[in-house]
Amino acid sequence: MPDRTHLPLPFALRGPFLTSCGDPFVDGVDATRRYESDGVVVVAEGKIADAGPARQVLARLPERTPVERLPRGTMLAPGFVDCHVHYAQLPVIASHGAELLDWLERYTYPSERAFEEPRHARATARRFFDLTLAAGTTATAVFCTVHAGSVEAFFAEASRRGVRAVAGRVLMDRNAPKDLRDSARRGYDESKALIGRWHGRGRLGYAITPRFAPTSTPGQLEAAGALWREHPDCWVQSHLSENLREIGWVHELFPKARDYVDVYASYGLLGKRAIYGHGIHLAEREFAALAASGTSLAHCPTSNLFLGSGLFDWKRVKKRGRPVRTGLASDVGGGTSLSMLATLAEAYKVARLRGASLSPGELFHLATRGGAEALDLHHRIGGIAPGLEADLVLLDLDATPLLAQRVRYASDLDEALFALIVLGDDRAVRATWVAGRLVHRREVA
Ligand SMILES: [Zn+2]
224: CA distance to ligand 1 center in Å? Predict the structure, then answer.
């Protein structure tokens, strides 16, 4: 495939494409999915200019637009969205033998401490984007560390790559090692300065990022809420109801709160553009409060299994009448893969253990438009439709011998898609485009 990095001219890709264009959990898969077996997607100035059946799109294609035929056995899709990931924990992915609170002490804090050193932060940010783009992930919501420099390094690299990213400096002023703690004032001031420098610059957005309730004083959560009121188009991200010991601790630390969700609610931290990782052990009142406020959850199946945190309950999350907006997330380093395909496979298995069965269409939606909706970015990314940013991934249904032989026996799109989800990972990502620029290409023999 030619590298179009420096070509200002529009170009078109011809082959099968698949996109979600609505919410299958509400309206069903058939009404919210578009598949073209012989499609054309036209890209111009970083956006999708046209998309549809080849017959129709070719007829109206501007003259001299190059049309590239996609390789056999591949399918074009929107780039994946990872709604919750800690780039600073990349060095401790796959660390042994701990549940959440021990994990933080043994692995997370030592790993994050190293981000005091800007060179380490820059090198890790580079590696993070090399790996996520190779896995087909084109948009991320990222926790940095308590060091403002970790955010600078991350946004600088994201800007250089042209990717859409939401990220923030972790706020943490108690119950953490002394050298990783800030104060309510300092956390507020540094976050505000970072918002001024990065929020809305190119494709970047700032997320006000208290790590989770136990590591912030009421004063710090108050300051986080105030900051959001001053910058309402920023995001808020944190953790919620991941682990039973954690939940007990929250009750001790915030005795006046009705429950965990109420802690965040009482500081003005619920609403559209607020996204919370996990949400495993929630009560009905908490789900209802999330749904009513438009707050999103980031489902992190590999992390939940790896740390033994619990099983996300799809039936309750998507209860009729009050579904909670939900995206998919790797939660690396607690999570064990940056591949959204591998993460989807685990999401499917977690649902099975709770007596639910996610369909291939629902799964595909979660990793693309569902994530975009959870981040309130679906008017920009997460689909293949005119006007959306041209973040695209070319999926390879022949990526491995095991996958290829299974797909040969697939009788329809859903069977093939499900095989790709269960058996696929970064090897099934043949190419990745960010705002119409080819940023990753996997060489095949
Ligand atoms: Zn997390």
Answer: 18
Ligand 1 centroid to residue 77 C-alpha, Å: 26
Question: Which residue is associated with the tokens 């591998």?
Answer: 342
Q: Whole-angstrom Cα distance, residue 219 to residue 229?
A: 15
pLDDT in tens, 202-252: 999 999 999 999 999 999 999 999 999 999 999 999 999 999 999 999 999
Q: Compute, in angstroms, the gap from residue 61 CA to the centroid of ligand 1.
A: 45
Query: What confidence tens digit (pLDDT) does each residue in 292-314 have?
Result: 999 999 999 999 999 999 999 99
Cross-strand pairs, 297: 276, 326
Q: How far is the CA of 334 from the centre of ligand 1 (A)?
A: 7
Q: CB-based contacts of 167: which residues, under 8 Å, 6+ apart?
A: 87, 140, 141, 142, 143, 144, 151, 154, 155, 158, 204, 205, 206, 207, 209
**pTM > 0.90: yes or no:** yes
CB 133: neighbour CB atoms within 10 A? 22
